[in-house]
Amino acid sequence: MMSANQKTNQCIATCPACGLLCDDVLLENKHNKLQVLNNHCAKSIAFFGQKLSDVSPQIAGKPTTLAQAIAQAAQLLKQAKQPLFSGLSTDVAGFRALYNLSQKTNGNLQHMHAQSMARNMNVLQCTGWQTTTLTEVKNRADVIVCIGTDIVSHHPRFFERFIQKNGMFINANQRELIFIGENISLQKLKKDALEASSLLACRAANLPEVTLVLRALVAGKHLKATTVAGVKVSDLQAVADKLKNAKYAVLAWVAKDLDFPHAELTIQNITETVAILNNNASNHSGRAAGLPLGGSDGDTSANNANTWLSGLALNDSNAAHDCVVWVNSFSPEKSLQKSNKPLIVLGNVNSQFEQVPDVFIPIATPGLDCSGTLFRVDSAVILPLKKVRENDLLTLSEIVREIEKLL
Amino acid sequence: MITLLKNGKLFDPARNKNGVVEDIYIRDGHIIAKPAGAEKISQTYDLKGKIVMAGAIDMHSHIGGGKVNIARMMLPEFRETIKYSEPEAHICTPNCAHNATPTTTETGFRYIEMGYTAAFEPAILPINARQAHLEMADTPMIDKGGYAMLGNDDYFLRLLSPNGSKKSADQKAINDYVAWTLHATQAIGIKVVNPGGISAFKFNQRRLNLDENNVHYQVTPRDILKSLSRAVNALGIAKPLHVHCNNLGAAGNFQTTLDTMQASDGVAMHLTHIQFHSYGLEGDKKFSSAAAQIAEALNKNKHITADVGQILFGQTVTASGDSMMQHLNAKYANPKKSVIMDVECDAGCGVVPFKYRDQNYVNALQWAIGLELFLSVTDPWRIFLTTDHPNGAPFTSYPHLIRLLMDKTFRNEAFAKLNLDAQAMSNLPSLTREYSLYEIAIMTRAGAAKLIGLNNCGHLGAGAQADITVYTEQANKEAMFAKPDYVFKNGELVVKDGKIVKVVWGATHVTKPAFDIGVEKNLKKYFDKYHTIQLDNFKISNNEIADNGRGKIVVNTKGE
């Protein structure tokens, strides 16, 4: 894809640094170093700015040949009775390869975001939900309530791309943003997100109560209390009224930010609020939808692929294991907690370690060193990733195939 | 390398072979004419007394894509149903399977074990097409393909709508957009689901009748149907517009279905899962069979085809693009959970688990309505055997369904076990027709291939893909169709005595009609302004399907 004023060393790429998968990022490649020229954010600049270090495969911290590292990895997997494949930060093809390897080695799979993913899956599997996707938000949403999150910490360009733009059925100046939660700077959001923003400050730990009251108010219940967890009920009633009067209300949350016990019940309060708003019998004239956000490191891709391959969503298994395979393509700064089990790392060339792995094999990062495919955070859109710099790294699937040959 | 299948009794309706004993020669994955004497036969199967048909083709089965995967994700308890050996309903038999959410591997395996060699996903959301193809790429054994959903996407509705300064676009712009969509999504047909209704639901409309306006666009489902069916017809593709009518599942909806046939204006149209659209309002419960009226109209309108969407009893899940009607039906969810989604100004989806019970009046009558339709529609080339997998029942119930069609004693025994009020409202026992093997072969092979426009499938003549199923004739047709003796895929023996002996990967069937690429100019503007991805990333390349050599694209052309 080249536009007329694009130079030959430039391309429009898809950025896998967060779940939004912005595919309008303009890159320039100078001597195999990448610079983001346009449509950037802090995350994409860091992602495409990663060094291509010429790190070699390692056994116990010592450089070795690829063949020896693969042989050693296969040996450790053969010895293991039940390995754990964790991290799983990869794309669809990488995950499919890992899934097959786990089947062959009696392994279990656990994504680095397993805990927060499980919060959403619990709700999906208990009551289901009514949700929407990013293009619908951009073109329809008039009232957007962000619960327990500022969103931008996860998706820096969320407001720029979907809220500040005029949509097909709504202009940006007709929208209203409401934040509920802690550590949220209204001043900053008014400036960066939307002037028409408001905040109901409340501690994250109080979100279960606050969302429950909001749900009750939307359902038309009357409360005797005048405050709940420090929030005025009249303020929550005002939010409920806005939701009921909205043409297309969106209630967004980030499971990772709801980091307290039984957060799934808070998410359920949100999704059931949506269900009440959409109920024919309720007294209002618009639509509503939930919007789970926050995915990254290929979690949505791994979850979807695991579901069609095994029939089940990825769970937070924390299974007993006697060997760990840590796979991390996208976020070299994230490393596994220390463990006393044999450790194989298949990772980004800049991988950082808490402990020296028994085997380390550098792999190509999809969207940077090789092409690939990822699911966007809303699961509806699946995008191709490009190879944007020269390198001779093997892909995760290629490494896995070599390991399998020796099993 | 030539393989010879000799002495088999062929049921090959595409070539008018009704139980004719004839030899079949296979070379390089295809059926060939009898070779010259010099060529060596490397392998021979003696099929004396065996029934030989082309591999079966499921023309409507939800085998891949977003909503199917949501169903799997939402219903972990369904994994248990794989182990069920006890019947779920009074009329279940050992071959009734209850797994409504098979994995991609299970999907391919269960199909090929029954002698099916191709299945078509009927509801690919264009924006989600990449997922559908990823899942189909992981589905072994069978060929696959799909129909792209249009008619609720805002791009199309803006073209059709008289709103705004410009008058509605000419038919050519719509034709080009439809063709472009077929290319971009790697599909072989076009489907419309609840025309205009999925969009209307996003504007808070809760029902939409054929002549009712979508409040925003001021166009009716009838306008949408006419425009899309004209486009599909003008492009010269084989597959007629695949129509999921408005008012899915609603009592009294048969009138909408009859009106939809009339709205076709003589242009070929396929009405899908018509059982769910054949309900009257008679009786104390205001729910009755309108199968007779629908069948009469189908018999009269030769340009209309339909598949049934038979329900069978037990636990399943309904996965549909029809977010409007699925939201309405969610109150009947069993277990009590559902997913409803608005998707990308493109379409929607609704996933609602259902348990059909033979002692429930409505469910029992739904079962009878489906069979009444099968038995009352006279032309087997225009009615197709489906359960709308998994919506009416898992596709693994097909052998059971085939027996219901071929064996009136079996059918009447089953009927006698139904809810008594439902029995009183059905004329099923008076329908004494029994389908022949030849008619089953039309419905599940020759007719399906003709409808979809598969150039080299669904028959056993020279040039055909060597997808061949061999059965032993049995009085119990369920047992016969559940477990073929042999299944050949592209000439290779892949199933023997109902068991898989070799894993292979099928092709993806598509069609690529010519169109004016100038359509991309407006699409690009629209994408840049309203969408959230680049136009180029919407399009699925041939390489993505080829998947490092495991997949393959077959382009089918009308009239070849």
Describe the protein in words:
The complex is a heterodimer of chains A (407) and B (560). Chain A is α/β, with parallel strands linked by helices. In chain A, helix 2 (66-79) crosses helix 12, helix 8 (207-218) packs across helix 9 and helix 8 packs parallel to helix 10 (263-278). In chain A, helix 7 links the parallel strand 10 and strand 11 (197-201). The longest helix of chain A has 16 residues, at 263-278. Chain A contains twelve helices and 20 strands. Chain A is globular and about 70 Å long. A seven-stranded mixed β-sheet of chain A has the order 5-4-18-17-16-6-7, with helices on one face. A five-stranded parallel β-sheet of chain A has the order 11-10-9-14-15, with helices on both faces. In chain A, strands 1-2-3 form a three-stranded antiparallel β-sheet, with helices on one face. Chain B is α/β, with parallel strands linked by helices. Chain B has 19 helices and 24 strands. In chain B, the strands form four sheets. In chain B, strands 6, 7, 8, 9, 10, 11, 14, 18, 23 and 24 form a ten-stranded parallel β-sheet that branches. In chain B, strands 1, 2, 3, 4, 5, 19, 20, 21 and 22 form a nine-stranded mixed β-sheet that branches. In chain B, strand 21 (492-496) and strand 22 (499-500) form a beta hairpin. In chain B, helix 5 crosses helix 7, helix 8 runs parallel beside helix 9 and helix 9 (291-300) runs parallel beside helix 11. The chains are: A alpha/beta (407), B alpha/beta (560). At the A-B interface, helix 4, strand 8, helix 5, helix 11 and strand 20 of A face helix 1, helix 2, helix 3 and strand 16 of B. Strand 8 of chain A pairs parallel with strand 16 (338-343) of chain B, so a sheet runs across the interface.
